[in-house]
Structures are given as structure tokens and as C-alpha cells.
Amino acid sequence: MNPFLRIAVLSISLLVALAGGYHLRAQGTAGSDARLETRTIIDVPTAGMLRNGAFGLGMEFFQNGGMTLSTSVGIYDRFMFGISYGGTGLIGDEHPTWNPAPGVLVKVRILDETFALPALALGFDSQGKEPYLDDPGRYTIKSTGFFFVASKNYEAYGTLSFHGGVNYSLERADGDTDPNLFAGFEKSVGSFLSLLGEYNLGWNDSNHDARGKGRGYLNIAVAVSAGNGLTLRFSFKDLLHNQSEITMGNRVFSVDFVNPI
After folding, report:
1. How many domains does the chain have?
2. How big is the CA angle at 55 (ends 148 and 32), to the nearest 5 degrees?
3. pLDDT at 247
4. Among 54, 90, 204, 238, who pairs with 74 as Cys (CB 3.0-4.6 Å)?
5. Domain of 32, in residue numbers
6. What is the model's pTM?
């Protein structure tokens, strides 16, 4: 077995073991029994946070043998910080190609959700999605950059959540410097499974030198709470074929673990 694949398998096994060691009240982020807030839908952020003292570990596996590892911590209930790093060719027989720099995440919740009002958060995330492209010097899916997002939850045959926001990415080497809008939802299906969907308008990836065709990015996913604090997610991305290289939904597998506190 390839050594990087071995590391990935061992890491997932360790997360499963850690999750199994906690009390059953601490579920993952999927399903009606979820006890943890989602911090992203698929690629775009939500107003969800890590609680004070909680830490998160994440792995995302994508095309070209790519993988991104991330860790984050709740400094206060309203403030969290994270770093991430990855590359391509980590799984398979290719020579690994690392991202040019680690990603940095900072998020602050400025308003908690009430009966009438959504939760509001703002932050910055420099970690793009999928492979980094030396030409023109950006990720396949641009990093969120600066963002402002609102999230609202409802009881509707389980749980139903809506999210929406605006962002401004600092990945502008392709000449597209527009701000961007995004929106998405989460719907529980039973106690441990959720369906996710998001639409990134891609206004910052639509000029003649960019990779997008102006259709935006439509992504869907299935998320499963696989243990206490552990969530697995399988995503189908760019269903509108916004990028010319995409002929069908790009498949991405993600693992997220949060220590219950």
C-alpha cells in the first residue's frame, strides 16, 4: 500500500476509535441527533462555530491523489482559529506536489441565533479547494477569503438549516476581482444522516481569463454521523460543469472530527 494511503487509512481508523470512546450524547454534525454545529456546508462557510476548548481535525480527499489536512480550535464560544495544508500526488505513484503555503482560518460569531434572527459570523479563510494551479496561481476552487455569513435552523421533520453569505477572495491572479455570493441548505434524513446542497455564484471566477464559465458552482453531498464527534461526507461538486475540465460531478470524500466537551 502506498505510504500516504496507509497514513490516511490509519488516520481515519484513529478518528473512528477516538469517536467511539466518547459518550453517545456527543454526535457528529449530521442527522437530527447532531450535537455539533457544521462550520461549512461543502465548500462554503456557515455561521457554525467550535465551542470554547473544542478542537477539530479534518481530512479531504480529492482528484489527482490530493489531500488536505486541517485542524481548528475554539478559543472562545464566539471565536475560532484553524490552519490547513495539503497537496496532490499524495495518494498514488506520482511525486507529491505541495501547496505553496498553509491555509489560515479565522471566524468570529457576531450574533447568536434567536427565534427571529439568524446567527451571523464573519471571518477569513485562505484555504482553497482541490489542486493548486501554478498557472494562473490559484486553487481549482478559489479560497473564500473574507466572508460574512448568516445561518438559520428550523424544525421540519427533523432539522432544516439555511445558510447564505458574501465573500471576497484574495486569489486574483486570473484578473477576476469581483465579490461573490453563496447560499446552501442542510436537511436531516433520520437521526444520523443529512443531505447538503450549496450554490456558489462564482462571480469571482467568470471573466475571460478565469476557469469558470459563469454558471456558478452547484454542489451536493451526503453526510453521516459515524461516531461521537465524527462525520463522514461524500460530495458531488460542480454539477453545472462550470469548469471546462469537468464532465461529471467531481467526487470528494471528507472526514471531520470534533472532540466533544
Report:
1. 1
2. 70
3. 61
4. 54
5. 3-258
6. 0.87
